[in-house]
Every structure is written in structure tokens, then in C-alpha cells.
Amino acid sequence: MRRLGIYQQVAFLGDVPADVALMQSAGGLWRFDDTSLLYQTTDTSTPVTSDGQSVGRAQALSGTAVATQPAAGVRPPFSEGSGLSFDGGSDSIVTDFNPGSAGTIAAYLRVRTSNNSNDIAIGSQNNGTSNRMWIGTTSGGVPWAGIGNLGGSTLQGGGDIRSATVFHAIALTWEGGTAHLYLDGAEVDTHGYGGTLSSAILALGGRGLGGTSVDSHFDGLIRFAMIQARALSAGEISDLHSFWSSIA
């Protein structure tokens, strides 16, 4: 078993240890392949019981955060055995959280091979040219991210990850003017950033624009998602990837 620092506790999920601090700091960790955490409605009155049902609410596995259908008439994602399926056109679900001046956004996802657009898997942006806070993939399937005035055309790397079967972990951390982009636990790019960060709550399966508006819809599946109000270390990002890939 991995040795932990003083006062650091251990939680278990699927027989894999995970630091409580990692899983329960401000924000949330979602597991979308567990239907006991999913509901067809924005409240908890109608649980998801089988694949193909729409998901109007996803309860966080840790923390108190939830993700819900942003408004009546907005299409939510639907449950698939390995996670939430987003169609790349209109499916979305929004969280109730924004990390702020330092944070981490991460997702364990699969990008469909047919996807050929610039997509955002998790994030928000409440200004058309800046105020970024998101991760996703380019039209060529390459992981990219945006934070503050730093855009995805600069912060990207790792190669084409589109696949019919394989999931990958993408993570972005930011703090003190430096952003790091990770793929499968390894850093693939880092840059300085400035400007103002997005203050809008983050969407899953797209980019939240504030209120109920979402664009840049994701085309693929998301199995796990994490939003935290602190920048995880490189070691923690590596641990997170190992954790996710071990229980997937």
C-alpha cells in the first residue's frame, strides 16, 4: 500500500486507495458509470436504472456538488454502461461549482472516432475572447485547454486520442499564473497565463457560458470527472490517472 503523509487518510473505492484530501476538497468527483448516483430528473425522484435513459442529475461521489440538466428543454446526456454519453450537438449537464483562482479540472473520457470539431468536455467561459476555464480536444482529437487569456491553440499536446474503445485522462491545473496540461498522468504542456478567469459555473459535455447556455458540445463518453478548488500536484495527477484506469 502506498505510504501517505502525516494525518493523511485513505478512502477506498473499488478496492483502490484514494486520498481523502484528493477526493473531498472543495468541488466534486463524479462517477458516471455508477447508476446509483444518477437520476432521470433534476431531483432524486426518478433513478436511472438502465442504459439509454436520460440523466437529469448526477450526484457527486465525494463532496456535495451535483450536476443537473441546465433547463427544461435542454437535452441532457444519457446513461451508457461505461459513462455518460454526449452527442456533440446539444447534450449537456451543468455543475453548481467554479473552482476560482486555483484549481483542477480532470476527466476520464473517450472521444468518438467520428468527431472532427473542437470540443470542450468540462468548463466555462463568460467572455467570448478570454475568461477561459476548460478542457477538451481539438478537431484532430488532441487534448487542449484554456485558462484566463490562455487559449487552446497554445495549451495543447499528446496526440490524437480519438478511439472506439479506449478512455484517456485529461487534466488541467492552474495556480499563480502557471497552467499545466496532463494526458494519462503525464504533463504534455505548460504555459503562463493572465487575464481574468471564468466566473461561470462549469458544464459537463460542453462550455458553460453563464446561466443555462452551453456551447462547444463534447462528442463522446465521460466516465469520471473531477473539479477541485486547488491545483493538484504532478504526483497527484499521476495517482488520479492510476486510480481511474484501475477501476475502469
Helix fraction by DSSP (H/I, runs of at least 4) = under 10%
Low-confidence stretches: 1-21
Quote the distance from N terminus to C terminus. 20 Å
Average of the residue pLDDT scores = 87
Q: What structural category characterises the helix and strand content?
A: mainly beta
Write up this protein.
It is built from two helices and 20 strands. Helix content is 8%, strand content 39%. By secondary structure, it is mainly beta. The relative contact order is 0.21. The chain starts with 9 loop residues before the first strand and ends with a helix.
Task: Annotate the secondary structure layout.
Elements: E1 10-13, E2 16-19, H1 20-24, E3 27-31, E4 38-39, E5 57-59, E6 66-68, E7 78-80, E8 83-87, E9 93-95, E10 103-111, E11 119-125, E12 132-137, E13 143-148, E14 168-175, E15 178-183, E16 186-192, E17 203-204, E18 207-208, E19 214-215, E20 219-228, H2 234-247
Antiparallel strand pairs: 1-2, 3-20, 4-5, 5-6, 6-9, 7-8, 8-20, 9-17, 10-14, 10-20, 11-12, 11-17, 12-13, 14-15, 15-16, 18-19
